[in-house]
Each structure stands twice: as C-alpha cells, then as structure tokens.
Recover the amino acids of this structure.
C-alpha cells in the first residue's frame, strides 16, 4: 500500500530528526592526556543563610559557582539562557561570566588559597568581602583541566579549571578562616595600611582541617587533563558554548583519556556522566544532593569563633556537618565553661 505524499514526507522528517538527535558529534580532536593525580584548592566566602558552607555544598551534591547567586528557579532559567547563546550573538572573545555555571577557577596549592582567603577577610578593605571564608582541598580528576594562561602583565602562569562543577565525593577536606576568631581579629587590629596585603604570618597560621566523610578514594586513580585550549569557548564553530561543554565532558570521560574500560566506567560513575547510558545527559553536572539536618543548619549560623571550644569542634559546628559525637563534646565544653562562671561568682547549672 502506497503512503500518501504528505505522510511519506512526515515519516522521512521524523526519521531524520531522530537520527540527528541520537547521533553524537565526533569528539573534539584536542591532543589531551591525563596528568598524575594531585590536589587543587577552592576558596568560597560564606554568604547569608549558610550559603557556601560545606553543609550547603553537600546538600547540593557538590560545589558549583552557578548555584551560589540565585535560587533554583532563577538558576534553571539561566541554564536555558546559556544553552541558547550562539557565537553570532556576542563578541568573539567570550565573557567568561556567561559560563559561570560550567567553569570554575581553581588554585594550585594551599599557600595560594590562604592568600586569597585572607584578602577576602581583610578588614582594611571597605567593606570586607566576607566574615568567614571556606577553603576546600580537592582531588584532581579529568573534570579538572590544566592550562597555561597569561597574567595582566603577559607573564605565563598555570591555572586549573573545573568543568561543570565538583562532585562532593571529590572534596578531600576543608577548613575556614573566621574574621570573628580572636587570633584573626587581633592580627587585623595590629595591621596598618603600610603592611603587606597578605602578612607573612598568614602562611603559617594554624588551621584546623576537617575530613570529608563522603570523599571517595577512587579519585586517586585519576588526574587533571592537559591539552584543552585556553580559548576553547571563544566562538566555537557551528554550536553553542553549552554544546561545546558537553562535548568536552564526553571527551574527558572517553577512552582517549581513560583507555581502561573498568577505570573509565568508574570515572563515569564518580562524575555521574555517562553519555553511552544517557545520550541526552546535559548540564548541570550536579544532580544528587544530601539534605542537611535542621539542627546542623541552625548550629552553623552561630559565631562559634567567639566561644571557647576546641578549633576542630568550632569547625564542625560552622560547617553544618557536625556529628552527634562532636555535638556532645561541644555541649559539654560549653556547659563546663558556663558552670565555672566569672571569678567569685557561682556558675550556671545546665
């Protein structure tokens, strides 16, 4: 039986559309390779309502700068806007703020992270950027790429960027710099405008680090990726920048970067990105969060730097990830301090 011409044309169009939608583009041809495993750092100022704390990022499934400035509905709308950006809609040199949901700049070592954290807290700047700043130590993986950039003077410099975000299992540990801490506050009080922007003592300041219980040691099997051009998002030919980002994720999870099939599958599970199993996978990268308890969220908003309890307990309380055991220790410490009371006065009994 012969199909009517209109039905035949419709059938052909549907077949063509299906093939076009399911046929993946060839992988980018950049000469990529994987570096040895290492560590990188990220500094995040804490915002209102515990925004930017470890507990907040755990609830989001990991760290993504794109989730910081907007509620979920606004973030979703921004994703849609970015998906529709095409090269002829903007200047040849991309404004990287438009890729804040895809790209994150990372720091190469703890020394650089300390310097950046201090500058965010510096009360000589009016106003200071934050009262508390979090430093995250991150295991490298193929979602982190290494590149050579130039500073404002044209000098070469190395920098790492994360593509899509950082799954929470990729965070090794974290610490904080708290502007309300007595030692930090006393240091600020002794500084003048003539002192260095970052005093030498910042490099040796004692910081208490808290391990991430959700860190997956399988990340140690991977390193950063080399060979992706710095200007890869500058007007990619024939596609949106979001499509280019998807192609890069396909590349770094492919056999070109991880030849061993078992390791490659492990990486795809770590990143929750497998285009063979899920051809339509798209950003945002982070999809599975872990809710923060109401108690931990409330405790994280108290200025614990002003309370005489051990630094590691202060850190756990402020992070929003305190355990039951740590919470009990904190309560006993506070109770003992209150019961002692000022000299010559009877303490308060809890």
């Amino acid at each position: 039986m012969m199909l009517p011409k209109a039905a035949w044309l419709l059938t052909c169009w549907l077949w063509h559309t299906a093939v076009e939608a399911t046929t993946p583009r060839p992988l980018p041809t950049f000469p990529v390779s994987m570096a040895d495993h290492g560590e990188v750092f990220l500094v995040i100022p804490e915002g209102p309502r515990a925004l930017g704390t470890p507990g907040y990022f755990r609830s989001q499934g990991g760290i993504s700068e794109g989730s910081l400035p907007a509620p979920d509905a606004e973030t979703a709308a921004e994703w849609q806007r970015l998906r529709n950006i095409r090269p002829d809609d903007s200047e040849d040199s991309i404004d990287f703020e438009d890729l804040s949901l895809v790209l994150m700049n990372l720091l190469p070592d703890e020394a650089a992270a300390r310097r950046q954290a201090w500058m965010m807290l510096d009360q000589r700047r009016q106003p200071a950027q934050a009262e508390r700043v979090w430093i995250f130590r991150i295991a490298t993986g193929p979602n982190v790429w290494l590149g050579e950039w130039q500073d404002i003077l044209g000098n070469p410099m190395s920098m790492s960027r994360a593509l899509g975000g950082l799954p929470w299992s990729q965070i090794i540990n974290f610490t904080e710099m708290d502007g309300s801490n007595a030692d930090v506050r006393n240091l600020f009080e002794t500084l003048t405008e003539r002192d260095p922007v970052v005093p030498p003592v910042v490099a040796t300041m004692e910081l208490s680090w808290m391990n991430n219980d959700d860190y997956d040691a399988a990340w140690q099997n991977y390193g950063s990726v080399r060979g992706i051009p710095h200007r890869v998002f500058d007007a990619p030919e024939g596609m949106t920048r979001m499509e280019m980002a998807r192609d890069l994720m396909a590349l770094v999870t492919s056999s070109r970067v991880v030849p061993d099939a078992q390791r490659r599958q492990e990486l795809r599970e770590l990143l929750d990105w497998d285009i063979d199993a899920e051809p339509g996978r798209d950003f945002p990268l982070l999809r599975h969060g872990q809710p923060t308890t109401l108690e931990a969220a409330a405790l994280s908003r108290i200025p614990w730097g002003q309370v005489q309890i051990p630094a590691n307990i202060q850190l756990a309380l402020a992070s929003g990830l305190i355990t039951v055991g740590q919470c009990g220790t904190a309560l006993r410490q506070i109770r003992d301090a209150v019961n002692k009371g000022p000299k010559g006065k009877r303490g308060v009994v809890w």
In short: The two ends are 89 Å apart (CA to CA). DSSP finds ten helices and eleven strands in the chain.
